[in-house]
Amino acid sequence: IIAVLTPLSVYISTVLVSPDFYSNMIEYSVESGNSSREEAENYFNLSSYILQSSIFAVVVGVVTSAIVALFVKRKVAPVA
Description:
mainly alpha, 4 helices
């Protein structure tokens, strides 16, 4: 569910709530010398953030599910 809703939440937070987010991040990244303008523009954009957030949501969901499964797995009684 989280992975499905992630693109919508990224869109809302970066386009509707903070429309200058990407331009501010690009400027900061270039001014601080962390990347060139082209690199920053390729990294800080809506499609890049939607892709990154979606992949992160799926990976974290799988890891969380695996950890929870370790704690809640049941021991199967031997068949007599």
